[in-house]
Each structure stands twice: as structure tokens, then as C-alpha cells.
Design a protein that fits this description.
With 346 residues, this protein is an all-alpha fold. The protein is 84% helix and 0% strand. The chain is built from 16 helices and no strands.
Length: 346
């Protein structure tokens, strides 16, 4: 079952508050389980509380519920337990999840209006000619007036959309596409294939790459700040990037780092990161301010990403509106021309 970002934030924030105020970890999780309205989360929290009561650590208990606790979160919890800074780590995880939620919300807001306009375009194309104009088109066909080319095109298109074979074929094609996408998303090889395909799309590719780098930088920063080894942080941040291609290629970078190579050289080997990102990491490593500069880069990339989505929305909206206007104009001309000829013949 999928757990939402706000639910994760609320759990980690509440647990940090209770634990920091002196309530025992086991009792804190029990209280959160008792207050939980969601049946699934209540079951998860009760399971974690039972494992804590049995003597397991929080990180060990959390690892049994990957839908609620990502590997990055589990690793951070383990570091917090080892260093005695669990309350601080819980706050950092809550901050991280909150930032990721804000980023997802910005992306969702940016693509909502263009998606609505594209859907409206499809509705206008599919519904308007065969159903709204059906009576008018049948009247034009029965008339003795020679129909213009535009009108004949509209009639043929309308007939196709009413053809049961075309409708069933379109539905089957759509269902097949949804099934194929679902299968790809469940398969690591398929996820990588979709990632490569998305990055290759003009206009969309750079945006997806920047989104992955921003998420990688944010995760890498919090892992380094918590004291996770750089190579382990690299692998976990790659998983947190949400891009299967980056998650795969970053493993090579982590292996190079463990063999003694420089950080910027290791990340360059992934062939995914922009030069500005690599140069910033090199400066951060030389100055001893790596985690600070990574956080600044994450802030910069997130701001640029928000601007990029705003520009994308600003570009798509006028094109979609112009397309809808063009379709309406085409239909009006295709209908009005033969009707004017009919009026002249009367």
C-alpha cells in the first residue's frame, strides 16, 4: 500500500517531538499507533512497536515496512541510533520528506493545467464531430449540394469515431498501453528503459534529468550531514533520485569512490550530472564544506526546476488553446460552407 508524503512527515515529526520530550521510543510509537486513523498505518506502527518491545532497534523494525520507510530513512535511523542523535535524525528525515513533498506538489501544480488542456483537446476532437454535429452532418450528406473538401474530411472522421471497430480497437490499444506501462514500472529493466526513453524526449529530457539531480543532491546532503559514508550515501541518494538510470549508474561511481578516486571524478563517471554540479562538489570537497554546498546546489536546482515547469506550462497553455480554437474554426468552416450553398440553392 502506498503511503503519502504528508503521512511520513507527520510520523517522523511527531515521533521526534515525543522522543525529544522524554517519552520512550517504544511508548512514542505506541501512542502514534493508537492515534492513527488509517488502518494500514496503524498496523505498521503496531508492528514497529512490537518489534521495539522485543528488543529490536527502530531501524531494524522499520526495514520490515518498505512502503513506509525507504532505505534512505532506514539507514539514517541506524546512524542516529549509533551516534545517539536519533531525535535530531528524526527531525532531519521529517525535513527531507517535507521538502520532497513540496517539490512533488510544485511539479503537480505545474503540469495540472497543461494536462487539463490536453484532455480538453482530446474531448473536443473525439466528442464534438461524431455526437454534437451528427444531425447537421447527416443533413449535409442527404442534401444535393457538392460538399467542400473540409466537410468531406469532417464527415469521414466523424464516421470513423462512430465505428464500433475503431472504438473497440482504440480501447484495446489504450488498455494494452496501460498494461505495458504497469509491467515496465514493476520491472527494474523496464524502469531503466522508461528512464532512458524519458531522458531522450526533447524538452522533457532535461527537465527529468534536473529533477533527478535535485532529488539526488537533497538526499546526498542529508546523508552526508548525518555521517553516512560517502559511497553508501551515494548509492542511497541514487535510489532516492527516482530515476532508475541514475540509480544504476551511480553504483559504478560508488565503487570508484571506494577504490580511492576523487568524488567529482566518480560522479562524472556516471555520465548523468551537469558540469556545474560536479565543479561545486569539487570545491566543496577541497574546502571541507561538501554537505553545505550540496544543500545549496539542491536549493538552486529545485528553484530552477520550478521555473522550468512554470515555463513549460506557459508554453503548453497557448498552444493547447490555439489548437482548440483551430479545431473549432475548422468545424465551423466545414459546416457553414455547405449550409451557405444550400441557402443559395433555395
Amino acid at each position: 500500500m502506498r503511503v503519502s508524503g504528508p503521512q511520513r512527515v507527520q510520523f517522523f515529526r511527531s515521533l521526534a517531538t515525543l522522543f525529544h520530550s522524554g517519552v520512550g521510543l517504544h511508548r512514542s510509537v505506541e501512542l502514534l499507533a493508537e492515534q492513527q486513523d488509517d488502518p494500514y498505518l496503524g498496523e505498521v506502527f503496531h508492528g514497529v512497536a512490537q518489534m521495539l518491545a522485543a528488543g529490536h532497534t527502530l531501524s531494524r523494525a522499520a526495514s520490515n515496512y518498505p512502503d513506509m520507510f525507504a532505505r534512505l530513512n532506514v539507514r539514517l535511523l541506524a546512524v542516529g541510533e549509533k551516534t545517539g542523535a536519533l531525535a535530531t535524525i528524526l527531525e532531519r528525515i521529517a525535513d527531507y520528506e517535507e521538502r520532497q513533498g513540496e517539490l512533488r506538489l510544485k511539479v503537480r501544480r505545474a503540469v495540472t493545467m497543461p494536462a487539463i488542456l490536453v484532455a480538453l483537446c482530446l474531448v473536443v476532437i473525439v466528442v464534438f464531430p461524431p455526437f454534437v454535429l451528427r444531425g447537421i452532418l447527416e443533413m449535409l450528406i442527404d442534401s444535393k449540394v457538392e460538399l467542400p473538401f473540409m466537410t468531406r474530411v469532417l464527415i469521414v472522421f466523424s464516421s470513423l469515431l462512430r465505428n464500433p471497430l475503431v472504438v473497440l480497437g482504440s480501447l484495446a490499444l489504450g488498455a494494452g498501453l496501460v498494461w505495458w506501462l504497469g509491467r515496465q514500472l514493476r520491472d527494474p529493466v523496464g524502469l531503466r528503459r522508461l528512464s532512458v526513453l524519458g531522458l531522450a524526449v526533447p524538452g522533457l529530457g532535461p527537465t527529468l534529468r534536473q529533477l533527478a539531480v535535485a532529488r539526488f543532491a537533497r538526499a546526498y546532503e542529508i546523508l552526508l550531514e548525518a555521517g553516512v559514508l560517502a559511497s553508501q550515501a551515494m548509492r542511497l541518494a541514487g535510489e532516492a533520485s527516482g530515476n532508475a538510470l541514475l540509480a544504476e549508474q551511480i553504483k559504478t561511481s560508488a565503487n570508484l569512490l571506494e577504490s580511492g578516486a576523487e568524488l567529482s571524478e566518480c560522479l562524472a563517471a556516471a555520465e548523468f550530472f551537469p558540469q556545474s554540479f560536479l565543479q561545486t562538489l569539487e570545491v566543496g570537497q577541497e574546502s571541507g564544506r561538501l554537505s553545505t554546498l550540496v544543500a545549496e546546489v539542491a536549493n538552486l536546482f529545485e528553484a530552477e526546476l520550478e521555473h522550468r515547469f512554470e515555463m513549460l506550462a506557459a508554453t503548453v497553455e497557448p498552444f493547447a488553446l490555439a489548437f482548440i480554437g483551430g479545431v473549432v474554426a475548422f468545424v465551423l468552416v466545414a459546416v457553414m460552407l455547405p449550409m451557405m450553398e444550400m441557402m443559395k440553392a433555395m
